Amino acid sequence: MVDQSITGAAGKVAEGDRSGRARLVIVLLCVALALSMFLSLRSGASDASAVAVIRDWLTGTMPDDAALGARDRLIVYDIRMPRVLLGVLIGAALAVSGAVMQGLFRNPLADPGLIGVSAGSSLGAVAVIVLGTTWL
Q1: What would the pLDDT profile of 31-64 be if each residue is shown by its tens digit?
Q2: Rounded Cα distance, 74 and 68, in Å
Q3: CA-CA distance, 27 to 21, in Å (whole number)?
Q4: What is the mean pLDDT of residues 16-39?
């Protein structure tokens, strides 16, 4: 393998420009994530208003004097909140695993098929179809 690193002043990229831009992108992505999480909590058949959800979440009031009713609190906190948090955690885990795979193979186009994940899952699916689930 040939080392293609560039040394000297001509090869250096202005770190201030890149790090400032990266920070801005990270902040904007975090804001977009928070906004999409809030919209996921808010959207649905429940008639809970966005202001009531924000007020209830920020004040942390007890159920007696809450901005949301008991039914809306149940929907928002017991049904939607776990779904939204699980979606965020799964997305983060998939992003980290993809970045690790690309870093491990030093290939920005690396995908799960590179290590046989697709073929292995196909084998498992065929085994379940042919043999059934009773042997599991």
Answers
A1: 999 999 988 888 888 877 778 888 887 877 655 5
A2: 9
A3: 10
A4: 90
Domain positions in the chain are 18-105, 112-136
Q: What is the C-alpha separation between 133 and 136, in angstroms, rounded?
A: 5
Question: 89-98, pLDDT tens digit by residue?
Answer: 999 999 999 9
- Rounded CA separation 22/30 (Å): 12
pTM of the complete model: 0.66
For residue 92, give both structure tokens. Answer: 């983060």
Q: How many CB atoms lie within 10 A of CB 8?
A: 6
Q: What share of the chain is helix, strand, coil (3-state, %, to 5)?
A: 70, 0, 30
